[in-house]
Amino acid sequence: MSSSAKRRQTGGFAVFEKWNRKLHFYLGLYFLFFLWLFSLTGLLLNHGQWLIAMAANERKETRYERTIELPAGATDLDRARDLMRQLSLQGEMDLPAVPQEPGRLAFSVSRPNDASQVRVDLDTRLASIQHFDNSRWATFRIFHTFSGSRYNQPASRRDWMATSMWVLAMDALAAGLIVMVLGSYYMWWRLKPKRQLGLIVLAAGYVACGWFFTSFL
Amino acid sequence: MYRWTRDLHLYFGLFISPFLLLFAASVFFLNHAKIVPDKWLSAETFQNVEIPDAIDRAQGKDAIARAQAILQQVGVTGEIGFTRFVRQTRHFVFPVSKPGVETNVDVDIDARTAIVSRRPTSVWEAFAYLHKMPGPHNVAIRGNWAGTRAWRWFADGTIYLTLFITITGIYLWWTIKAERRTGIALLSAGIVTFVALIYVVIR
Prior knowledge:
Largest sheet of chain B: 6 strands, antiparallel
Number of strands of chain A: 5
Oligomer: heterodimer
Radius of gyration of chain B: 23 Å
Distance between the termini of chain B: 44 Å
Radius of gyration of chain A: 25 Å
Helix content of chain A: 40-55%
């Protein structure tokens, strides 16, 4: 390799090293509060017996009825959307997995801070709403799982813009974490005195994590 | 202080890195994947199953203990999701899961037979399963498999060490004076994005 090519490569390498290091803490700083939220809510989700987690199960229930206009739309989804508009409800809407009863329309609308279960009698044009206001801890915890989609329920889908934005934030955090971890492997490997102990620690981590996948062997 | 902080940041980070990768990668599956769970791929019938006492009345942990006694006889391991006694048919039914395989055990109390149906899952489903374990549901009986109890330790450990790493990370960044201004700008941008998103979702 010519000396100029070597210099170019070294230069490119130096730029990569510099930006890899910068990216590690830039991403960390940008996502800091997201990471704290998902870490703390993860603890709450895994420790339902904690007082805080039990407080998160508390919610205030109210029931009310409203007369409605016959909802417009060709599908249950469209009709439910129209009813949400009439009832001034906002959030992620879920239709039940089972077919609707004739003359009735049922659906739920949820956000991290509240949820409503709506039952509509289309003949009498009366909507019965069961509304739940979640406690602050519950709201906090729900952010961890608020994706509007369940992978094992193909019919479930996101239909609220705010949910899509939140999911985008979750994806960005996940992608950022992956970049940070992979970048950190490189930074560690470049520290020759730390290689041996680092390798032992890293291997211990992979063995511990890999143990849970022994069913695949 | 600086040296210790840097070393602990590095080694703790390396140890939890596979767990972080698992949690991060599974986010994409949990948020975007759509699967139709396969049907049970295999079903095996076991005869002369020894039925534990009062299986038709047992609740909570007692029911789990009885289900575990049956699991030993049919050679299945994993976390029991819940138990259900179907009074009309006198069947004791419970799902069992672990990364890579889901099992359903259906015990006919009177015939003393057990049908064990299995469904292997994909690696992605296994990631998602671990991401969600132990989770907020059925708290009283969760952790009835040693694997779940062990995973709870690692999941919690990952969180505590992540919190430690973020705090040490802030310290390590702050020591680089030349990066303070850009760092503060990015930290502020992150806080603004975070607060704005929370506001949009709950307003």
